[in-house]
Amino acid sequence: MASPAPTPRPGDQLASTTSSTRVIVIRAPEEEVGTIACGGATMVLAQSVPAQPASGGAPGALIGKRYVDDADTLELLCTASGGGELTYDGAPLTIRAPKALPASD
């Protein structure tokens, strides 16, 4: 069985143990870090679990989307869609809105 992920650092790849969801840590809090989970199960380092096939049905995490916590201290980039909601210390993560590009008149 895979061990829980250590304190995440930018660049770490995490995987769900219950679905095909995979994320990369873009930004992580410098102080004490909470638990990053998907579908209620703690995510682990991607190298420690084999890739799971994509499951049918509506994905909880969408590939290419960035997810942030309410305090904007944690940011994850979804690299593989899968079932289950992404959470940080039990609170759901939200999709970060894209930044508006300046007008190119």
Q: Tell me the count of domains.
A: 1
Strand count, sense and closure of the main sheet? 6 strands, antiparallel
Taken in chain order, the helices and strands follow as: EEEEEEEEEE
- Unreliable residue runs: none
Tell me the β content: 25-35%
Report strand order across the widest sheet.
Answer: 5-1-2-7-6-10
Q: What is the global morphology?
A: globular
Number of helices: 0
Rg, Å, rounded: 14 Å
Q: Classify the secondary structure makeup into a structural class.
A: mainly beta
Calculate the terminal CA-CA distance, rounded to whole Å: 56 Å
The overall pLDDT, averaged over residues, is 85
- Binned, the helix content reads under 10%
Number of strands: 10
What does this structure look like?
By secondary structure, the chain is mostly beta strands. The chain has one domain. The chain is built from no helices and ten strands. It has a six-stranded antiparallel β-sheet with strand order 5-1-2-7-6-10, with no helix packed on it. Strands 4-3-8-9 form a four-stranded antiparallel β-sheet, with no helix packed on it. The termini are far apart.
Which tags fit this structure?
10 strands; six-stranded antiparallel sheet; 105 residues; globular
